[in-house]
Design a protein that fits this description.
The protein is of the alpha/beta class. It is built from 5 helices and 5 strands. The chain has a 5-stranded parallel sheet with strand order 2-1-3-4-5, sandwiched between helices. Helix 1 links the parallel strand 1 and strand 2. Helix 2 runs parallel beside helix 3. The radius of gyration is 13 Å and the shape is globular. The relative contact order is 0.16. The model has no long low-confidence stretch (mean pLDDT 94).
Length: 125
């Protein structure tokens, strides 16, 4: 079942994309597309329907909040998760108001990713 879940990992840091991808694959989520900035994330969203998206707030060009807003307009059923080094109340509130269903603070642990996957699985049960 997890192999069929279409996932986007959008982050301008290669190390973060790789780490998150490894954690997802460890839990049998293998249908992963990667984006290195906001524009490429939006392009991925336009090319295929996504079930789950991890979006960094601070990306070149279009930030993660605006990518999230675009995603909510085109695919509101996707489970959007913001990933950020910023965990201030304003950033979290802005993400939730824009439609994020989860928020992961960098540096993140595998436990935090597993928690988000659990919420995703409950929402899609």
């Amino acid at each position: 079942m997890n192999e069929q879940v279409a996932i986007l990992v959008a982050d301008d840091e290669q190390a973060v994309r790789s780490l998150l991808g490894l954690m997802l694959k460890k839990h049998n989520y293998t249908n992963i597309t990667y984006a290195f900035d906001g524009l490429s994330a939006i392009e991925v969203m336009q090319q295929k329907p996504l079930d789950l998206a991890f979006l960094d707030i601070n990306m070149p060009g279009i930030d993660g909040i605006n990518v999230l807003k675009h995603g909510m307009e085109t695919n509101a059923s996707c489970f959007y998760v913001i990933v950020s080094a910023q965990s201030d109340l304003h950033s979290v509130k802005e993400a939730i108001e824009a439609g994020a269903r989860g928020f992961i603070v960098k540096p993140f642990t595998e436990r935090k990713v597993i928690d988000v996957l659990g919420k995703f699985e409950q929402a899609h049960a």
